[in-house]
Amino acid sequence: MPLPQSVLVVGSGGREHALVRALLASPARPRVIAAPGNAGIALDVPCFPVAADHVPGLVALARREKMEFVVVGPEVPLSLGLVDELTAAGIPAYGPKKDGARLEASKIFTKQILLKYKIPTAPAAFFSEAAPALAYLHTRKIPIVIKADGLAAGKGVIVAQTRIEAETAVREMLEGGKFGASGRQILIEDCLFGEETSLLVVVSGRDYVILPAAQDHKRIGDGDAGPNTGGMGAYSPAEVVTPALLARIEREIVQPSVKAIAAEGMDFRGTLFIGLMLTPDGPSVIEYNARFGDPETQVVLPRLATDVLELLWAAARGELGQIKLSVNPESAICVVLAARGYPDSYPKGDVITLPVASNLPPDTFIFHAGTAQDANGAIVTAGGRVLGVTALAPTLKEAAERAYAVCNQIQFASKYFRRDIGARQLNRS
């Protein structure tokens, strides 16, 4: 199948930088542009100052630049119907339409589907008022999980370790408006115990391709301490997902999920991110996302031997059944450099000093996330998660050594990063 010669990547994070790099590596050598991009993406491709949530502006940009394909990175434009509008304009896009994006935009919607189709997941209840929610809390065991229903940039999930913490989370969301409209309804679900893992599944209707398993590190601090973040690092492969376990996950979760989504009338063409807890009783779904994970993308895409452009194009066109996935055997690790204070308040505008590209270890990449260029042309911090350092090597230990060597070379005043990414697997092996 002929591949598109021009691609627009929508978004401005580390995930989008990884997508841009993967698309540039395609043998088809497409022209790639990004909107809005960031300071690092702008070093690789032209960036256009159209916000990721400005749907009419993005459609107009794709038309004006004669884009043959659009790859949508973040969840917000998907939930706003960007793919619907691009499709109406005759522009093929990778990413689900608005109905499919509800799998991420509403945690309650997803939980109802999981329960309806008997896909393994934690027991849960839904509330829009504090009093019945607080009453329900007293019937459940602690720890317990409180989730804002809507999008909250990865921060709308509270794993309450005490009853007071759980009650506070409920009141802050339902009475204090902590997450605005996203927290007007909440989901309270039993806490699952085990190891978490992430599975990225490229879906096209009833066809799917499972990408290599990864493990994310959500907590801000070493040893999984502190509040949840959007993700402080990841590695792949996740050896805890053995071939036998992966076959079970495919049988009990992936296949039923894809069938359930189709049965609900969604023509889903994009990434189904399945967050899993590997409990003593078996794998269980924590959440669905409707796009590539961040930072999982930064370790999964570099491991693919299959042309990423061909993979995404086939999914968008309903031709995914023709794709046979090929994966490189190397291990990959990504360490996120954040601004100290994230996920709460943090400084912006710190000048970043980066190592010269020629001095980087082999197969090591610096993906930009929250970066911008200041009036003097310097690259500065512009978000909570600033950079992601990804390294590939024959072993995870070697990959970690390469990544951390680069982390230590990068300088900015508020630099903070976890020093134990991949430790669980390294300690196990």
Q: What characteristics describe this protein?
A:
single chain, 22 strands, Rossmann fold, D-amino Acid Aminotransferase, Chain A, domain 1, alpha+beta, four-stranded parallel sheet, Dna Ligase, domain 1
Structure notes:
This protein is an alpha+beta fold. The protein has four domains: 6-97, Rossmann fold (3-Layer(aba) Sandwich); 123-190, ATP-grasp fold, A domain (Dna Ligase, domain 1, 2-Layer Sandwich), CATH 3.30.1490.20; 193-322, D-amino Acid Aminotransferase, Chain A, domain 1; 331-428, Phosphoribosylglycinamide synthetase, C-terminal domain (Glycinamide Ribonucleotide Synthetase, Chain A, domain 4). Helix content is 30%, strand content 27%. The protein is built from 14 helices and 22 strands. The strands form six sheets. Strands 11, 14, 17, 18, 21 and 22 form a six-stranded antiparallel sheet that branches. It has a four-stranded parallel sheet with strand order 2-1-3-4, sandwiched between helices. Strands 5-8-6-7 form a four-stranded antiparallel sheet, sandwiched between helices. Helix 8 packs antiparallel against helix 9. The longest helix has 21 residues, at 243-263.
Tell me the radius of gyration: 21 Å
Unreliable spans are none
Structural class: alpha+beta
How many H/I helical runs? 14
Characterize the biggest β-sheet. Answer: 6 strands, antiparallel
Distance between the termini: 43 Å
Say what the CATH topology of the largest domain is. Answer: D-amino Acid Aminotransferase, Chain A, domain 1
The CATH level-2 architecture of the largest domain is identified as 2-Layer Sandwich
Helical content stands at: 25-40%
Mean pLDDT: 96
Our count of domains comes out at 4
Looking at CATH, the homologous superfamily of the largest domain is: ATP-grasp fold, B domain
Strand content: 25-35%
